[in-house]
Write a structure and sequence with these properties.
Blueprint: E1 25-30, H1 35-47, E2 52-56, H2 59-62, H3 86-92, E3 102-106, H4 111-124, E4 133-136, H5 141-147, H6 154-171, E5 175-176, E6 178-181, H7 183-187, H8 192-212, H9 217-220, E7 224-230, H10 234-255, E8 268-272, H11 285-298, E9 303-305, H12 318-333, H13 348-370, H14 374-379, H15 382-400, H16 428-442, H17 445-460, H18 466-474, H19 479-490
Parallel strand pairs: 1-2, 1-9, 2-3, 3-4, 4-5, 6-7, 7-8, 8-9
């Protein structure tokens, strides 16, 4: 092989020495209940050796609803932490200096609002926005494709994203303004090649939108990042990551004319696959997670989350989260794989898989281009249909026994005692509702209304929305209030 790690098109890794110079960031995705409860989990994980925080938000926060909204009933603090205002964000990171950690926030429709809250929470710690490092997912297209936590129609949603690109490019030079996600596409049932293709098609749409908005490619592309799934097929997953890097590098150089080498480097976070975890014999999930995590490392991930063994049943317990972290630490410090820049380079099997996935993904991207790009392919249902067909074919293989799932369709155990699982405090919803009432009663209502009115005016015009969202957040406006003003202008998206 003539190509070396750290050289275009980065098939063998984006850095010459990879983990010999610096290990991947070990993140553990966490968030539940109130900000205080999640804060305690973050401090526990930091004490156990994680090197980056990763925040899960509850569904109301993701959907731009306050915790006392009628549709939020029963969902407050369930699948993530409830954050309704900058006050919650301050509590979430109390005692954690935000210039000493990198933070990833998995949030999309309300990403601009949560980023504003994070910036203000840091400011109140005495930390400037320019010193913050981390990632906001901010990937709305995959919500229409695979996940469903969208608010606005695609085109105005794209405007918000490009506004974040432009604002953060000036104010937060160390911040990754988007994490373009294949993870949820794979969780919805796509193949490995589809995961690469649809993720990169989304990336092309974001880059085209930013360029159309007047941004230079090399001004924002170095801060783009990606989020991929680490699935079960060990060799295929390693090849998938290599193919994604190579294809992206060529797209950036040949299609967009990127000059800065960092603009052509695909940097990615990986998470082991939740969809592959089984409720039956949950201890077996430890093995699945280990295989998937090793594939991500051999594939060259820049950061990694390992799932807890009990996540097919509930949110992970603290003990499960610690064991998942220990899995990464053993790979890093005991397996020896971090001592070689590209341990799989030169493998005929890996090289063949890499070539195949690149070829299949490129063919999909060409088809999507013919539909007007990712937006057109989403609006006509093409991408969603391809994922649904792949998911159906996979499930048929499982049901026919052609694909073995240990403990599910083969090698079953007898009666199993239910494992200890984590439960969210039932009082969260009431507690958050009371805090919201206190917040609204204690703030300057006239100032809030004025700031929200200015945001609405900016949305009707062409101004960058981020400075207005920051002003609203600083006046103690809530997630729901800010989102509702944007709903007035942009409307809400209804599939079909």
């Amino acid at each position: 092989m003539s190509e070396a790690p750290g050289r275009y098109p980065y098939t063998r890794g984006i850095y010459p020495d990879m983990y010999r110079g610096r290990l991947w960031t070990m993140r553990q995705y966490a968030g539940f209940g109130t900000a205080e409860e999640s804060n305690r989990r973050y401090k526990y994980l930091l004490s156990q050796g994680i090197t980056g925080l990763s925040v899960a938000f509850d569904l109301p926060t993701q959907m731009g609803m306050d915790s006392d909204h009628a549709l939020a009933a029963g969902e407050v603090g369930r699948v993530g932490v409830s954050v309704c205002s900058v006050a919650d964000m301050e509590r979430l990171f109390e005692g954690i200096r935000l210039d000493t950690v990198t933070t990833s926030m998995t949030i999309n429709s309300t990403a601009a609002i949560l980023l504003a809250y994070y910036v203000l929470a840091a400011r109140r710690q005495g930390v400037e926005a320019r010193k913050l490092s981390g990632t906001i997912q901010n990937d709305i297209l995959k919500e229409y494709i695979a996940r469903g936590t969208y608010i606005y129609p695609p085109r105005p949603a794209m405007r918000i994203i490009t506004d974040v690109f432009a604002w953060a490019g000036r104010e937060m030079p160390e911040w990754n303004t988007i994490s373009i996600s294949g993870y949820h596409i794979r969780e919805a049932g796509s193949t490995a090649a589809q995961e690469v293709a649809f993720t990169l098609a989304d990336a092309i749409a974001y880059i085209e939108a930013a360029v159309k908005a007047g941004l230079e490619v090399d001004a924002f592309a170095p801060r783009l990042s990606f989020f991929f799934n680490a699935h079960n097929n060990f060799l295929e997953e390693i090849g998938k990551f290599r193919a994604a890097r190579r294809l992206y590098a060529r797209i950036m150089k040949e299609r967009f004319g990127a000059k800065n080498p960092r603009s052509t480097m695909l940097r990615f976070h990986a998470q082991t696959s939740g969809a592959t975890l089984a409720a039956q014999q949950p201890d077996v999930n430890v093995v699945r997670v280990s295989v998937q995590a090793l594939a991500a490392v051999l594939g060259g991930a820049q950061s990694l989350h390992t799932n807890g063994k009990d996540e097919a049943l509930a949110l992970p317990t603290a003990e499960s989260a610690r064991l998942a972290l220990r899995t990464q630490q053993i790979i890093a410090h005991e397996s020896g794989v971090a001592g070689v820049a590209d341990p799989c380079g030169g493998s005929e099997a890996i090289e063949a898989i890499t070539d195949r996935i690149e070829r299949e993904a490129a063919a999909y991207i060409e088809r999507i281009d013919g539909m007007g790009g990712a937006l057109g392919a989403i609006e006509n249902g093409f991408i969603q249909g391809e994922i649904q067909n792949a998911a159906y074919a996979y499930q048929q293989e499982v049901e026919r026994g052609e694909r073995i799932i240990v403990g599910v369709n083969r090698f079953r155990a007898g009666e199993e005692a239910p494992p200890k699982t984590f439960r969210v405090n039932e009082a969260v919803e009431k507690e958050q509702g009371e805090r919201l009432r206190e917040l609204r009663a204690g703030r300057a209502a006239g100032e809030v209304e004025a700031k929200l009115g200015a945001l609405e005016g900016a949305a009707r015009g062409g101004e960058n929305l981020m400075p207005h969202i920051l002003e609203c957040a600083a006046a103690w406006a809530t997630v729901g209030e800010i989102s509702d003003r944007l709903r007035r202008v942009f409307g809400e998206y209804r599939e079909g």
